[in-house]
Specification:
This protein has about 290 residues and is of the alpha/beta class. The chain contains 11 helices and 8 strands. It has an 8-stranded mixed β-sheet with strand order 3-2-1-4-5-6-7-8, sandwiched between helices. The longest helix has 20 residues. Bound molecules: nicotinamide-adenine-dinucleotide.
């Protein structure tokens, strides 16, 4: 299998037009790539198109890009609910955090793309090797873990699964640099590096609130006053309660269920009441729906 080096990649397809897919698509189009953004939900595609346009208009308003550049960036982006349009040099999967769904998507994509297309997953917590083990060609699957908000945060964890080919890791590493990001290569382990280190930040904060020691706003206020950019509750609202709870559950489970990392009942209650954070208009805080 001939792997395209990072400097030869021209087209990128993103699957999933939610918080992450939308931001990653913007990053790719801004960096000059022909970009297809696919989602099964047409409303999410519309919402994504609206938020990318609005974000670029803000940049134009600040004089960071010209109006002509905005038009060129948008002309490189195609939004589609049709999976047969998901053909590209690299496909970056950013759909819901569910192993079966991701495996099923990659198996469909394998039938639509040539063998050299690289498959990257933006999963936060599912081991890349576990997804790869259920694909016919695990050597072309790699983790490409962006951070939220993708257009702003520079870090990308490039995750090497047990069977990921070295050439695939190198190609995605180089692609991340072309996207203006700062890649690091990580071995495959539950939550990789950032999400493993960050787990207690959320879980201890949730325990403090659940036991009545402080409110979410107070915890955020003190953590931000010590220098953290975002307190844990504001951050959970940004990430999405569904995504954050699922990541906690998966990391805990894959690490052998240590009690200190057990998912929070409080977070589960908030999630079950439909409060997903910013994306639904309410989480630990209330937002304007956009
Ligand atoms: N939210 C974060 O802060 C964050 C950060 C890094 C990585 N991630 C990871 O990125 C992925 C996406 O997270 P998100 O926060 O963008 O989720 P999200 O809920 O905002 O969006 C998920 C999108 O996937 C779509 N989708 C679901 N199944 C699909 C399918 N089979 N084909 C195409 N589209 C499908 C949904 O319609 C939705 O638009 C997850 O794996 C998550 O763990 C999230």
């Amino acid at each position: 299998m001939a792997i395209l080096p990072g400097n030869m990649i021209e087209s990128i397809c993103i699957c999933g037009a939610g918080t992450m897919g939308s931001g990653i698509a913007q990053v790719c189009a801004v960096a000059g790539f022909n970009t297809v953004l696919f989602d099964v939900n047409a409303a999410m595609l519309q919402r994504s198109e609206h938020s990318i346009r609005a974000g670029l208009d803000v940049l134009a308003g600040k004089g960071k890009v010209t109006v002509d550049e905005v038009a060129r960036i948008l002309s490189r982006l195609r939004f589609t609910p049709d999976i047969t349009e998901c053909r590209a040099d690299v496909v970056i999967e950013a759909i819901i955090e569910n192993e079966d769904e991701k495996v099923s998507l990659f198996n469909t994509l394998a039938g639509l793309n040539p063998p050299e297309t690289i498959f990257a997953t933006n999963t936060s917590s599912i081991p890349v090797s576990a997804i790869g083990a259920r694909l016919s060609n695990p050597s072309r699957l790699v983790g490409m873990h962006f951070f939220n908000p993708a257009p702003i945060l520079r870090l990308v964890e490039v995750v090497k699964g047990t069977d990921t080919a070295e050439a695939v890791v190198n190609s995605i590493y180089d692609l991340a640099i072309r996207l203006g990001k700062t890649p690091v290569i990580c071995n495959d382990s539950p939550g990789f590096i950032v999400n493993r280190v960050a787990r207690p930040y959320y879980l201890e904060a949730l325990k403090i609130v659940a036991s009545g020691i402080a409110t979410p706003a107070l915890v955020d206020q003190v953590m931000e006053a010590t220098g953290f950019k975002m307190g844990p509750f504001r951050l959970m609202d940004l990430i999405g309660m569904d995504v954050n709870y699922q990541v906690s559950t998966l990391v805990w489970d894959k690490l052998g269920r240590p009690p200190r990392l057990a998912p929070s009942d409080l977070q589960k209650q908030v999630l079950e009441s439909g409060k997903l954070g910013r994306k639904s208009g309410e989480g630990f805080y209330i937002y304007n729906k956009s």
